[in-house]
Every structure is written in structure tokens, then in C-alpha cells.
From TrEMBL:
Pfam families: p450 (PF00067)
Family annotation (CDD domains): CYP2
Ligand binding (heme): 439
Gene3D superfamilies, alphabetized: Cytochrome P450
Taxonomic source organism: Leptobrachium leishanense
Protein's recorded name: Cytochrome P450
Amino acid sequence: MEVEGFGTFLLVLVISCLLIFTTWDRMYRKRNLPPGPSPMPLIGNLLHIKRGEMVKSLMEVGSRFGPVYTVYFGPRPVVVISGYQAVKEALIDQGEEFSGRGRMPSVERIFNGFGVAFSNGERWKQLRRFSLMTLKNFGMGKRSIEDRIKEEAECLVEDVRSYKCAPVDPSHILTQAISNVICSVVFGNRFDYKDVEFQELLRMFNEMFHLMTSSWGQLQEIIPTIMNYIPGPHQKIHPFITKVLDFVHERVKANQQSLEPSSPRDYIDCFIIKMQQENQNPTSEFYMKNLLMSVLNLFFAGTETASTTLRHGLLILLKHQGIQEKLHDEIDRVIGQNRGPNMEDRIKMPYMNAVIHEIQRFSDVIPMNVPHTVIKDTSFRGYTIPKGTDVYPLLCSVLRDPTQFSNPDKFNPEHFLDASGSFKKNDAFMPFSTGKRTCLGASLARMELFLFVTTILQNFKLTSPKQFSESDLNPRMAGFVNLPISYQLSFVPR
């Protein structure tokens, strides 16, 4: 009897699953969403995503269904857009419709729609307008952002000299230097490289980004309603962000106590002044929660992406010594050794400009982009994308589009040089995304990359006893962030 009862139970279970799947599949196909693999109840297309290889898996699905397709993250449809032409049509030609910020379950419990990076609607418009203006005009007659970057580049050079050519993993020192630039803008001061609190903050940053791009972090993005209740390393992301937020809160309180409205020192001061000016405006988005979250957004974005790009870049120059020698020659010809570089030099240095662009293209640090969402029902290439549907415009598919780059899987500065050796632009160069949600700190990052790379190569030759292969250079196409391999190099004075 027990065997018969179990057999009956198993039969009922199978029939129930088939009915659920059939109903789900029918409902899914009634929509006019772009095509895609059939989802399963509850888990969606989880089985189509290889463990730890979300980006590669999405690209493989795209090879079957075309440049616009739908996958399900759990019960939630996500429209994926790949290739330069399709991404351009979405983010530029229909930029307003695709201008919403989509969900990032791994961090949304903290940000919850607040702050300049993860907000939408009027809140986002007010915060972005203010942040762009503040970053652009920051200093009000005091030191410019370029001066801050040059100062930090000099600090980095002095720190590197102390290693006396010994092999070193550059990850930590590059992260410290890049983070100090955004710290000087947001908090009004840089930190000493040996500052214990600063080192702990950066350690948490690094671990958090590793967790977000790990298999656990990718599962968190796909099936958050399940992963929120499953123990694992991904559960550390929330506590890490909370600790950094506590640090930000303390800095804001210190600024409030020492504020001089006529002489703002940093982004926090400017935001506090704006809060005071609009405290009687019921529609104002300038209040404490948006201040804390916006500072956290700038701190995160201003630390990790540019430093990761630099780490990729130095690894590439170790492999391609011939490119490094050409850069040394251009630096000596344009700048010499009697002064440091400045941004005016960039127009006279087409090869350096091309190499830095190619480093950004090839390293492809944010391959999936930050998720977008459509702000209203949107017609796109004959399909209907309902309001609120998340959209992933894959930057990796644009930066490696064979119709736009002659040899997209190889590092080649010629992608940004014309026949005469002059720098040439390419519309498919979108490391900062494009359209209305272009990275807020794009101009800052461009300045950092030029000034740091040029200053490092003006002072040092990069060497390593290890011979790196082409596969060592390839970005690890995993999840949210592409990280380079760990490596060591020696900074040899020139």
C-alpha cells in the first residue's frame, strides 16, 4: 500500500508540475515580449545560466534568439539587448523610454530607490542635475579636480618608489590612489595609504565586488526571493554596505558641525547647503537619506571601476612591451621629464589616448551595464516591453561588436587610430554606457586614467619575471564586474 500511495503521490506531483509549466508557458507566450528560452515556474531561466558565467550564458542565449530577447530571472522578465545597433536604438534613439534604473537585488535592500545611481523619476532628475553641476564646478575658485588627480598621482609615484623595484601586486595601491581622488571631492580630504580605517573600507569594497560577481552574487540577482533566505557568502554584501554607510554618516555629521555655508569644502557640504535652501520645499529631494545614498554611490563608483581598469591596463602593458615603449617615446617627446602631465597634453598624445581607450574597451569592466528599466509601455523592434520591465543593454556586446571593431577579441590600439596615426573616435565606445544614464563620473574617470597612466609611465618601466599569455589578459566574463587575474610587477625607475 505504501508503494502504491507513493506512486500515486508521484504521479499527481508530475501532472501538477506539467499543468503549472503549461499554464506558465502559455501566459508567457501570449505577451508580445521579445522571444527567448521557455522559463520554468519560480526559477525562470536559471537553468540556462551556467554557474558563475552569467555574461557568457546571456551571450550564448543571444546567439540563438538574436540581439533582443527575453529571459526570466525567477518570475521576472528581463529584456536583454546586445550589439551596437540595438543598444544605440534603445539608449539613444529611444533614450527617454529606457531611462529608468532597473533592479539590483544584491544592493536594493540598502539603496531602495534612494541616491543618485538607483533612483528614478523626479528624484533621479534632481539628484543627477545637482551632482553633475557640483562635480563640474567643484571648488568654486579652489583647486580643480584635475589638480587633485595630479596630486594623488604624485603621491602614488612616491609610494611606488619605496618598493625599490621589488615585485608587488598593484591592486591595493591603485585602489587607494583612485579612491583618494573621489574622497577628496566627496569628503574634502585624501587618506594616508597607511590609514587603518581607509584600508578596512577598501578591503570591504574589494570583497563586496568579488561577492557580487561570484556565483552566489549572480544567483542573488536571478532568484532574489529564494537567495534572500539561503545562507551563504552573498549574505555578507548587506553588512559590508551597512558598515561603509556608517562611515559616510559619521563624515556627514562632522561636516554639519563644521559647515561654513559661504565656503563649501566638498560634495557633502554642497548637499547640506542645498538641503538648507530647500527645507521648505515639499517636492525637494534634498534630505538626509538621499545625501547618504548619493555619497555612497559616488564612493563606490569612483573607487572600483577606474582602479579595476587601471589594473587591467598595467597587466596589458606588461604583456605588450612594444606598446609600452611607444608610450614612453610619446611621453618623452610631448612632456619630457621636467614637469608632470596635464589634460592639455592629451590632444598632443594620440597614441596614449588610443591605448587608454583600448584598455577600457578590452577590459570591459561593467559587461552587463547597470540594469535599466522602461518608464512606460515601449514598442521596440516590433515587440512590446511593459512599463517597469528590467532591461540589460550588454556593454560587452557593444565593445566587442565585430561590425564596429576589426579584431574585437584582441587588444589593438589601432582600433582608435586612423591611417595617419591620429586619434579617431568610435561611436561603439561605450564603457560608461550611453544615453540619459551615462555614468555620472565619466569625465572624472577619463581624467584619472590619462593622468595616472601617463604619470606612471613617465616615471617607470613596468616589468615582470612572468611571461603573460593572451588568455591571461582576457577579462573574466563572469557577472557584474570583470576583474583581471592577480599578478605582480616591478616599477623600474626610468
